[in-house]
Amino acid sequence: MKYVLEEGKGSVTIKIEEELLNTQNSEELKTILNELYIKGNRQIEMDLSRVKATNSSGIGKILFFYKKLSEEGGSLKIKAISKDLKETFKLLRLDKLFNL
Q1: What is the topology classification, in CATH, of domain 3-97?
Q2: pTM exceeding the 0.70 threshold for the entire prediction
Q3: pLDDT one-digit tens code per residue, 60-83
Q4: Whose CB has fewer CB within 10 Å in the chain, the N or C terminal residue?
């Protein structure tokens, strides 16, 4: 999976450089997020502006880490999202969870 990590003050942003978040690359996303978590990052932002679509596996990984970080006082935020993916989030009512 192509991605860029940007470290800021107290947070890390992961920019996904793929158009599709599918079963295969969502496993890679899980690994990347887990590595950030192990390193102590509890404030993670995701830039999904290039992602046009995802399947349930991609949504599942995002929600898993949202819950995991929230339980420890951290957060997983969506910094940017494509128009197409935003529609999917709205259908699943995730726009309210992520304040889109």
Answers
A1: Transcription Regulator spoIIAA (3.30.750)
A2: yes
A3: 999 999 999 999 999 999 999 999
A4: C
